[in-house]
Amino acid sequence: MASMAPTAGGQYHWVSEFAPKSVEKPLSYIVGWLALLGWVTGCPSAAQLTSTLVQGLILLKNENANVAALWQTTLFIMIFLIVAVAFNLFLAGKLPLAEGIFLIVHIFGYFAFLIVLWTMSDHAPASQVFGNFTDGGGWGNTGLSCLVGITTPLWCFLGPDAGAHMSEELKDAGRVLPSAMVWATFFNGLLGLTMIITMCFCIGDIDGVLNSSTGIPIIQLLYNSTGSFSATVVMTTVLIVLSMVGTITVIAATSRQMWAFARDKGLPFSSFIEYVRPGWDIPINAILATLLISLLITCLNFGSDVALNAIISLSNAALIFSYMASIGCIRLKRFRNEPLLPRRWSLGRFGAPINDAALAFLTVGFVMSFFPITPMPAPVDMNWAVVIFVFVVLVAAVNYGVSARWRYVAPVALVKEL
């Protein structure tokens, strides 16, 4: 799809292209809202990860430091969001160079972590690593516990459409973009699997690492392995830098998604959001709108982290649904033997089975995105994402029926007019 239609709109554009004519406009509108919801809620989520790493490092130095209050965490998140937006505003032209540099940092950092953990940690026997299974969530079934736990690592693999939202700023996007998406996922998955196995061998006392004063298991693991505060600081700084670069990238992708949807009149104040100032060549208004919404979401953390965590957990469900909708539409065309758009990159004969496997896996991930961490949770620990998800879908559907059906311009209509 990224090769057939490399546009900043991504999923909602693809749904508009491939969905049956009877539903393509309303479905693409709802998918546009959910894809944007997934990305916007992902902005404070990415900044929250950076914030927790910084706080964990401070607590490693002084476990009595007063840096973990809700208002302090909120301010940390806001600071990192503002820094990420500033980079997107004033250094946008340097983003490809920065990502290339930090790709090198990522690769060398990976091997540095691997070497340190294998050479300086005590190792568990292979029989324990591959033969022992723990129901850490208390679900009474290790399989179900595994499925519930999959939502966290799944979050790391979401967002391959980030490149699609930047596609209108790429050269030869129809060929380069899908290739980059596939190989990035493949190699990161391979490296991630190797690192997970390494950590399972080297983690030692699991309860001690999970319940450490830092609150961040990877920081405690590094400190246990090296026995050096300085070494732990250096290695954690690599993680902080990479997490910050991830936040910058999420802001960039979100703003392009918002700009594209506003260009098709899918949002309130679309004329303002879609405006690009002459000479800037970046959607400044969309970037600022992304910052404003992200800061408003983050402000919920001043009162309670329950609401913030519920909204952030929407990132998984909303993006997964947008993937399911776009893949489902193209799978339906394949099933009906309808012609697809010309493309310069193709899955060939493996396209249909890969579509089927992706839909099956995404369905499981979508359902698990609404599960709480533990069974029978108290209201404060409940995963309220399903309530917010349904609310957003209903609001989008009602808004479409009341006004957006005349205002919203489905991308396929513009393509056909050309």
Quick tags:
418 residues; mainly alpha
Explain the overall architecture.
The chain is mostly helical and 418 residues long. Helices cover 71% and strands 0% of the residues. The chain is built from 19 helices and no strands. Helix 1 runs antiparallel to helix 2 (24-61), helix 2 crosses helix 3 (70-90) and helix 3 runs antiparallel to helix 14. The chain starts with 10 loop residues before the first helix and ends with a helix. The model has no long low-confidence stretch (mean pLDDT 85).
Quick summary of this structure?
With 418 residues, this protein is mostly helical. The chain contains 19 helices and no strands.
List the helices and strands and how they pair.
Elements: H1 11-18, H2 24-61, H3 70-90, H4 95-120, H5 126-131, H6 142-149, H7 151-157, H8 162-165, H9 173-202, H10 206-210, H11 217-226, H12 229-263, H13 270-274, H14 284-299, H15 305-312, H16 314-335, H17 351-368, H18 385-407, H19 411-417
Helix pairs in contact: 1-2, 1-16, 2-3, 2-12, 2-14, 2-16, 2-18, 3-12, 3-14, 4-9, 4-12, 11-12, 12-14, 16-17
Helix content: over 70%
Q: Separation of termini? A: 19 Å
Large-scale geometry = globular
Content of β-strand:
under 5%
Q: Describe the biggest sheet?
A: none
Helix vs. strand class: mainly alpha
Question: Rounded to an integer, what's the Rg over CA atoms?
Answer: 22 Å
